[in-house]
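Q: A small favour: would you put together sequence and structure tokens for a protein?
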Amino acid sequence: MRVAGIMSGTSLDGISVAAVEFAKGGWTLLEHIDVPYSKATREGLLSISNAPTHTAEIARWNFRLGELYAKAMGKLQTPVDLIGCHGQTVFHEKGCTLQLGEAAILAERTGKPVVSNFRPRDIAAGGQGAPLVPFVDDLLFRHKKLRRVALNIGGIANVTVLEPGRDAVAFDTGPGNMVIDQLAWVVSKGKQTYDRGAKLARQVTVNPALLADLLAAPYFKKLAPKSCGREQYGREFVAGLLATQVPLLDLMATATVLTAASIAASVAAPDELIAAGGGTLNPMIMAHLTALLPGTRVTTTAEFGIPVMAKEAVAFAMLARQTWLRRPGNLPSATGARRAVVLGQITP
């Protein structure tokens, strides 16, 4: 069976598609592509993400995204039997979530059944609806002897802690690229949507007082399971940073360390940290992580045959297959759900 996973994350940078083949108890990544959002699409999605908006705009973007996902599938060379589409998160809090991207459009355009709307069933079972990727992390990276942490640095950073002999624990550590990206947009006056190669952050110094204040936020003291998003680290958060009057580039450097420091403080020096996501392409984040975790071997999923930008799309291919086979796809130890449940809805 061949399954395509489609993921578009909180960074709002574009659509990732992975084609995965399942056979003889194993799996193979056949193809992975990234399709960037246009500037207009990114700005349109930002305008309805954790922001006052009109139901008409939400409805329109739900159908537009369905078409964009279908176009992204059209660029995939590998034929598939099933599609798993996470959708674009525009709102998420405990007990409530919304991902856009009309599955009926995607199914109609591709002629393939689509699994979508993964989060609500976990919420109905008492969970937070996120993170869901830890179910796959547990399958891919668990080791009999090593304490491993699987890390994804997207708009939000999240980890799966894999200790021998214990259930996986997973949670969002805080901001990943989200704050850095917004500041890069401000610094560049709208010309850059992210800090390419950390060229902005590496030029200046961290503001230690501001960093200490940010790390003292209540979220970092909360116990897992916990999740966060643009609701916590979106426009209002960045507006608060700008109001401090700290020089813009110093804010960039401070936000970069905030990402790494909040991750490092959450994982208690594992044997290995296996990272994925766009944040792995930021050399300053990775350098800070290595420095903050001196006893940990810091590596990426590329070492395990999964490109760093493909992991979440691979994960939703695997979760879609679980749904298709009527098997549970959540980890209650990660989401806080009362029980393991079959996730998602199938649009034939």
Q: What stands out?
A: The domain at 134-304 is CATH 3.30.420.40 (Nucleotidyltransferase; domain 5). The longest helix spans residues 55-74. The radius of gyration is 19 Å. The chain has two domains: 2-129+309-347, 134-304.
